[in-house]
Structure formats: structure tokens, C-alpha cells
Amino acid sequence: MRIDLVTVPYRYDELGEGLGAGPDALLVAGLVDQLGTAGLDFTGPHEACLDAAQREDGRTAVNIGRLGAATARLVAEARRTGAGALVLAGDDTAAIGVVSGLQQADGAGAAIGIVWVDAHGDFNTPETSFSGILAGMPVAILAGLAGPLWREAAGLAAPVPTDRIVLAGTRELDEKETELLRSTEVRVVTAGELRSDDRFAGVIDWLAARCALLYLHVDLDVLDPRFVPSASTPSANGLTIEELVATMSTVLQTGKVAAVAISSLNPGAGARGERSVASAMKTLIDALPLWTSTPDAPGAP
Predict the structure, then answer these.
(1) Helical (H) or strand (E) element with 283
(2) Bridge pairing between strands 10-11 and 14-15
(3) Is the pLDDT reported for residue 284 higher than 90?
(4) Does residue 263 register a pLDDT over 70?
């Protein structure tokens, strides 16, 4: 199987700073060469860019959406050529562009399922969020519960029904976010449940049976802070690298994953950043060789 590498080196609309430096840090660390040694066939990297002429002061959500449109074009192109899209993203806001790209390739009505592996739910809306941080809202945006201008700018043609969304590794939810989740059909598998039982495998089997293709999104703060000590949003009692690889493997081995995104690596400076980059590299090198097939796309060769 061929994998097309897409980078989105932005955090919000700032290029290459903090989390935005994460994609390049993985490339500099030799990700492509090491995955090639593991037998993976890569093309790229292709960088999603927000043209300066498209950026509008004071319209952050629209700017992120327009960056998402650039991401979508690259993901759709990968999908149409029969490749899986591996997206190295600055932060979780890139997800709207990834799903938009899958819809462009497979149609707005395609049954796309989302497996969101993250310490946080990212299911806030402007009304439920305590912080107002947009990176805490992407799953709710994808579900159509907020952000119409953001979705429109990214070209997201249709929201993802909540019964096609699984949150995994979750251990920090805001009170109002929890209430909102309870009003939906999103399935939540906590970090503790990932460790203690086989519920996650059953949930993924259920999701794969009802979806034509899956999008696997991994926020690296799902790992315990001892593995990603430079994380911008650390959360205690996280997964080990082995547990994250097993979680990803469960999804990848369905044969239905069309896109994988890795986000929120803060390469920082010094030993803490080096440790975080090494953990991200080990996760990817151990997990991605298990991605051996992707669903056929309409018109793919």
C-alpha cells in the first residue's frame, strides 16, 4: 500500500511555532527513511499552506477553515490515487480539512467514521468551552454542532453523524462538554477502559461494520506525560507507547482506514522536546507498518 504524506505545520494560523514545529521535527528525525526501511511506500511530503492573500485579520476560524481547504485538496488527491493519507498536523484543527478531503474524494454522503484518540474530548462549542480554545472544538465542528463558517471555508460538505464517532483514551472532559456528549450518540472509551478490557475492539468492530471508511486521529497528549514531557496540554494517567500502538493497531487492521493524522507534537527545546519527538517516532514506526490496506476510492486506479 502506498502512503501519501501531508504536513500541516500550523497551530491555528501561525506557521512553524510550538506545536506547528512538530511536523518538521518528525521529518528531520528521519521519519520517512525509517518507515521506508520498515517497508512502507511513501510519496511526499506535500505541505498544506494558507496563502497570505487568503488570511484575514481577526477571522481565525475562517483562516483555519481556508487552511483546511488546502489540506482537503491534498487528502482528496491521495485518496483518488488509491493512497492512504498520513497527515502530520500542528494541532487538532487540521481534522476538519482531512474529513473534507475524504468527502471530496468519496462524496458528501460517504459513510465516514472517526476514531479520535486523545486525552481530551475536543467536543466543546463556543457555548460550552471555558477557555474558548478552538483546538478543543474540532470533533463538535465535524459533528455540525458549531462552526458553520469554519466548515464552509474548509469545504466540509456534510457533518459527520455522531453515531459514527468514537473517542478513545479520553480522561479529561469539561462539565458542559460531558453534558453535550451525553446528548449525542458518540461512543467514549476512556484510557482506563482501553487498558482493562476489550470493549474498544468491540466498538471498533461495530463502527467498521457501519462505515465505508475510517479516519484515525491521534493527539499525542493521549500518551502519559512521561513520554511527551513537552506536551502543551499534558494529562496524567495517560497511555504508554505500547498501549497507543495497540489502540492504533485495532483500528488500522480493520482495513478501512483511509487517513491517519498525528497532531500536537511540541518539539520544544532540550531534553524534554527530544523525549517527546522520540516517543512520537517510536509510536509511528511501530504502528504504521500495520496499515496494510485502505478502502477503494471511487475512480481510484
Answers:
(1) helix 270-287
(2) antiparallel
(3) yes
(4) yes
Instruction: Spell out where 138-195 has E strands.
Output: 165-170, 187-190
Verify cis geometry, omega within 30 degrees of 0, for the bond prior to 126.
no
Buried b (16+ CB within 10 A) or exposed e, 142-175: bbebbbeebbebbbbeebbbbebbbbbbbbebbe
Q: What distance in Å separates the CA atoms of residue 241 and residue 267, rounded to the nearest whole number?
A: 17
- The C-alpha atoms of residue 25 and residue 201 are separated, in whole angstroms, by 32
- Distance in angstroms (rounded) separating the CA atoms of residues 262 and 89: 6
Nine-digit cell string for 225 = 506525560
> Which pairs with CB-CB distance under 8 Å and at least 24 residues apart come from 275-280?
275/227, 275/228, 275/229, 275/230, 276/220, 276/227, 276/228, 276/229, 276/230, 276/231, 277/25, 277/26, 277/29, 278/29, 279/220, 279/223, 279/227, 279/228, 279/241, 280/22, 280/26, 280/220, 280/228
Q: Is the pTM of this model over 0.90?
A: yes
Confidence band of 16 (pLDDT split at 50, 70, 90): low
Distance CA 254, CA 36 (A): 22
The mean per-residue pLDDT over the stretch 50-63 comes to 87
Residues in contact with 100: Cβ distance below 8 Å, sequence separation at least 6, in sequence order: 68, 69, 71, 72, 75, 154, 155, 156, 157
Encode pLDDT of 64-81 as tens digits: 999 999 999 999 999 999
118 Cβ contact list (under 8 Å, min separation 6)? 92, 167, 168, 169, 170, 217, 218, 219, 221, 222
Q: Which CATH superfamily is domain 2-290 in?
A: Ureohydrolase domain (3.40.800.10)
* Higher pLDDT among residues 57 and 91, named by residue: 91
Task: Give the residue extent of every domain in the chain.
Answer: 2-290
Give the residue among 97, 103, 49 at the shortest CA–CA distance from 80: 103
Interhelix angle for 241-252 vs 270-287, to 10°? Answer: 30
% the chain with pLDDT above 70: 98
